[in-house]
Amino acid sequence: MATAVVHLSGEGTIGEKAYLRIRKDILFGRLAPGEKLKLERLKDDYGVSVSTLREVLSRLASEKLVVAEGQRGFEVSSVSADDLKDIASLRLLLEVHAIAQSFQSGDMEWEARVVAAHHKLAAMEDRKKSEGSPDAETWKRYDWEFHQALISACGSRELMETHGAVFDKYLRYQVLALTDRGDIAAREHKQLMQCALKRDAAKAGEVLKAHITGGVDHALAVGKIA
Amino acid sequence: MLAAPDIAETIGERTYRRIRSDIIFGRLQPGQRLRLEPLSAQYETSIATLRELLNRLLVEGLIVAEGQRGFEVAPVSAERWHEIAQMRELLECHALRQSIENGDVEWEGRVVAAHHKLATLEKRLLAGARDQTETWKRYDWEFHHALISCCGSKALLDAHSAIFDKYLRYQIIAVVFRGEVPAREHLAMRDAALARDSALASDILVTHIRDCVDYTLKTGALAS
User: Fold this and answer.
1) Minimum distance, in Å, between the CA of residue A188 and any CA atom of chain B
2) B6 has a pLDDT exceeding 90
3) CB A83 within 8 A of CB B155
4) Average pLDDT of the segment spanning B28-57
């Protein structure tokens, strides 16, 4: 089942490792939207057999990160403004619901996870301000870890997994637009953490809505997504 | 999804649909080991094609990987059943409200048509017919899908389809036909949708789902 890839380690079989690498390369734009995925070339790049590759690509097609081109092959899923808005609304729906459940059930361990994840993300956001563009993967991993920590006490694997899959699609757009709202996003993250500790799910929902809507507007304003 | 198959689909696609439907309708049982050799003989397909489609089912959460050794049909539990039902409730209520807001007369036509088919079959089931589970469940899906079909979000419809099929697998395990009550709820949902009363429609939907879960758990087909 799909879980946010930035969170997964590279353990497992050769097929599993190739799957995670290719998936990550799609999310971080090293395999660009619409790019043809030629089996012969990928086989060399990732050091796996054509049959393993076909299994990996079937799996990614199922996640809609690649599309099958009839009998002939695969390409990376294209992007569009409408698709981004769609994905953003679904993320908001799932995450607001999960936050409400999580804020209700979260214990002290959960609070500690939220505080720790926020600390790491905030440190990265500070460094970004002083040193300029950071390592996108680490930054986005901390962002994911923070949002995931917020909902981690929601009590439903089903919800966490679906959220993880949608989050990754959202992430691909963020990376693509190289979107960085700097202080605004950092402030919203801080507010979310404070809401968590106060168990104010209603306020957190409002902040998250502004956070995601702002992220979408910013990504679209960059003009790389038609 | 249980939608009618595409005529132009490939052999791999057709086999994928067959295996998927066999999992949902319990012909491949929860926890059953999926050995490649016998499966490839049974579904008349190559091991390579089989591995590709099993990887798709893996992403959908209908099967699980057993370390290096292979795959098995995803096990079931009462806990997971609650999670799936809550997820369906979240997605379908949201989509229903959007769809009722956006729906045009074409949409009303789809809702009425889908309800007509479902209601006809429900009458037959009430009269004692027991051999039409798959058709009944397809009509049930078509009706719920028609109701939300104007929600305006492809991502939401996809997520809903996926969860609906997981939900269906649990229903099938308990072979639930709850008689007149859900049939009345379907009718009431249709009328609420046509009256554009989204609050009422989603209230009925919540009851519809929760009662089904409770009923299924009472049959004892799922371990707690």
Assistant:
1) 25
2) no
3) yes
4) 93
Contact (CB, 8 A) for B52 and A54: yes
CA-nearest residue to A55 within chain B is B52
- Residue B59 and residue A63: Cβ atoms within 8 Å? yes
CA distances from B222 to A150, B34, B75, B134, B175 (A): 31, 21, 10, 21, 11
Chain B's closest residue to A170, CA to CA, is B155
Yes or no, beta carbons of B155 and A166 under 8 Å apart? yes
Question: Could you report the predicted ipTM of this complex, rounded to two decimals?
Answer: 0.85
Beta strand pairing call for B33-34 and A66-69: unpaired
Q: Is A223 helix (H, G, I), strand (E, B) or coil?
A: coil
Of A221, A121, A220, the closest CA to residue A173 belongs to: A220
pLDDT, tens digit, for every residue of A86-133?
Answer: 999 999 999 999 999 999 999 999 999 999 999 999 999 988 888 776
Q: pLDDT grade, residue A9 (50/70/90)?
A: very low
| Domains of chain A with CATH codes | 5-76 (1.10.10.10), 81-221 (1.20.120.530)
B58 to chain A nearest CA, in Å? 6
Task: State the pTM of this model.
Answer: 0.89
B94 in Cβ contact with A89 (< 8 Å): no
Q: Which domains does chain B have, with CATH numbers?
A: 11-73 (1.10.10.10), 78-218 (1.20.120.530)
Q: How far apart are CA B126 and CA B128, in angstroms?
A: 5
pLDDT tops 80 at residue B223: no
B193, B147 contact by CB (below 8 A): yes
Query: Cα–Cα distance between B200 and A123 in angstroms, integer?
Result: 47
